[in-house]
Write a structure and sequence with these properties.
about 55% helix; mainly alpha; globular
């Protein structure tokens, strides 16, 4: 479930809430294309998400797949 992953990152980085509340599904869906763009950057790019670069490849693929789905609706 992507909600649990985004929720964990929201707790790790509470300062992000004022910029983009990733703990709120409606907010993430509203910015899905922007989040997808950041998560699709090369890992060496400073704007790459997630910041810690420690998300497993399978969870990363799940999130990217979900973002692609919701950004098309």
């Amino acid at each position: 479930d992507v909600g649990a992953i985004f929720g964990a990152y929201a707790r790790l980085y509470p300062g992000m809430k004022s910029r983009l509340d990733i703990s709120d599904q409606a907010t993430v869906v509203g910015f899905a294309s922007t989040v997808l763009e950041r998560m699709s950057l090369p890992i060496s790019d400073p704007a790459y998400m997630p910041v810690t670069r420690d998300l497993s490849p399978s969870k990363m693929a799940m999130i990217i797949s979900w973002l692609k789905q919701v950004s098309q609706t």
